[in-house]
Design brief:
By secondary structure, the chain is α/β, with parallel strands linked by helices. The protein contains 7 helices and 8 strands; from the N terminus they run E-H-E-H-E-H-E-H-E-E-E-H-E-H-H. The C terminus is likely disordered.
């Protein structure tokens, strides 16, 4: 299978290495810049994974004039491994679905037990994504529809579940994620 990967760093490299080890043809793009090549990446690949630093970079990679969305012909799978707000993840999935593609939010967390994926999206997209995600981790938990993967990641980071320990010794990342989670809930209830 032809798999595109957008992003870089230690986690991205480990994931890409494992995908290649099992025989997938990998097409790597290190950044969300150079959107013409992102469109071509979507046109060439069956699935594309994104591991980018923030929601702005993800949106640019997906929806810039020559981004991934411009290269969708119908049925492609996009797997967003980035950490975003649940609302952003759900909105991105809806926009991609309107264009005939499938997008799952699958934020990757790393810790003492290896990689963990909380997977949110449609049943069809999650089933396809899970088969690819299990190439590099055995810990994939389906959480529900679009945006729920991000919500589960935030809940876990906030210490609401005890079955997973992340690498955040001073608790700063956990606090920041909890604040983002609470803001998203306030915005939803105010609307």
């Amino acid at each position: 299978m032809d798999i595109g990967f957008i992003g870089g760093g230690e986690v991205a490299n480990a994931i890409m290495d494992r995908l290649q080890e099992v025989g997938h043809r990998l097409h790597h793009h290190p950044h969300a810049h150079g959107c013409r090549s992102l469109r071509a990446l979507a046109e060439r690949c069956d699935a594309v994974m994104l591991l980018l630093p923030d929601a702005r970079a993800v949106e640019r990679a997906l929806f810039a004039e020559h981004g991934l969305a411009a290269g969708l012909s119908g049925g492609e799978l996009l797997i967003d491994l980035s950490s975003l707000s649940p609302d952003s993840a759900a909105a991105n999935a809806a926009r991609i679905a309107d264009l005939g593609g499938q997008l799952v939010d699958a934020p990757v967390s790393s810790g003492a037990m290896g990689y963990r994926i909380d997977l949110g999206g449609s049943d069809t997209a999650c089933a396809w994504a899970e088969s690819l995600l299990r190439v590099f981790t055995s810990t994939v938990e389906r959480t529900g529809g679009p945006g729920t993967g991000q919500r589960a990641r935030l809940a876990r980071s906030a210490g609401r579940t005890a079955d997973w320990t992340g690498d955040d010794p001073d608790g700063l990342h956990r606090l920041l994620r909890l604040m983002a989670f609470d803001e998203a809930d306030c915005a939803l209830s105010a609307g």
